[in-house]
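Same chain as my last thread, 69 residues:
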Amino acid sequence: MSGAAVVAMMPVLVLTGGLAFWAISILDFARSDARGVRTLPRDAWVVILVLGSVVGAAAWWTFGRPRQE
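reply #2:
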């Protein structure tokens, strides 16, 4: 595969990676216990995850996800 082909595929790879990260975040949110969710109420995290896309998913992993002990 030539360098030009790799560069041409880069947007597809980035979008696919972002979509996978977003989907994993939504699944992780759905599996998490409501009592362990941090920072905001669970209803607010649904809105942030759905409307925030990859940025909302990053916020979930950073600020909302229950601590793993």
